[in-house]
Design goal:
Largest sheet: none
Keywords: Membrane, Transmembrane, Transmembrane helix
Oligomer: single chain
Number of strands: 0
Number of helices: 4
Strand content: under 5%
Helix content: over 70%
Structural class: mainly alpha
Shape: elongated
Amino acid sequence: MLIQIVIGILFFIGVYILISDEEKWLRLTTYSYFILLTIIFVIGYINQLNNLQEPELFDISALRNWIYLFGYLYSVPIMIVSAYIWIPYPKKYKTLRSRVLMISLIVFIIMTAGHFLNLFFRLLFLGIA
């Protein structure tokens, strides 16, 4: 449980670094979304783990579904915020082809990182169960 807390703190530091220079509405919306999402996730995760302790209710599919849902609820907004922040940077390129290639590369990197973030989230909270 300690490693999950440490990685959660590192996640919030990463989100802070990502949006620290952005507009106030984006910072407030993102911070409040992830704080509220974390509170809901932790309460539900602890509840699901307590349900697994009871031998007559041993069903890991509910825990798996909970973690899969919140994996997407964490990774997809991070991808959207990252795209909102990084897509305007290729405007300095003069030709349309170079802009499209740079935007495509940025979107590919964001989607790949978001996918690995989701997989890492699943591995962190579900393990090999």
